[in-house]
UniProtKB/TrEMBL annotation:
The modification 4-aspartylphosphate is found at residue 56. CDD domains: REC_NarL-like (cd17535). This is Response regulator transcription factor. Residues 5-121 form the Response regulatory domain.
């Protein structure tokens, strides 16, 4: 399994810190960096070139959908998973239309995101 470089994007420090505490225990995950909004996510995606971005849907300044559209326009864009408390068909559809590769509920974040990251690290998802 290859090491997967991940950028965490969320405007709540508590959420980022909780995710990082878990991800640091996973030997094949490397947290490339964090961002607090979509503008920072775009900048850090270009600078850090992560394999995957785990991005909040609703953030100040620029939300996850607009940031996803702009990041997916970059050369060799990363795999992007949108995370949201708003877990319904409409929000999932908006995320997919914006170019997201996946969508997870924040209510079951780790249970949903870990299998996605494992598949990426094993080269099974593109």
């Amino acid at each position: 399994m290859r090491t997967l470089r991940v950028l965490l994007v969320d405007d709540h420090d508590g959420f980022i810190n909780a995710a990082m505490r878990h991800f640091r225990k996973v030997e094949w995950l490397d947290i490339a960096g964090t961002a607090g909004n979509g503008l920072e996510a775009i900048e850090r995606s270009e600078a850090l070139r992560p394999d995957a971005i785990l991005m909040d849907l609703a953030m100040p300044e620029m939300g996850g959908l607009q940031a996803t559209r702009l990041i997916k326009a970059q050369d060799e864009p990363p795999y992007i998973v949108i995370a949201s408390h708003f877990d319904d068909a409409e929000h999932r559809e908006h995320a997919m239309r914006a170019g997201a590769d996946g969508f997870v509920s924040k209510l079951s974040y780790l249970q949903e995101v870990m299998p996605i990251l494992e598949r990426l690290a094993q080269g099974e998802a593109s």
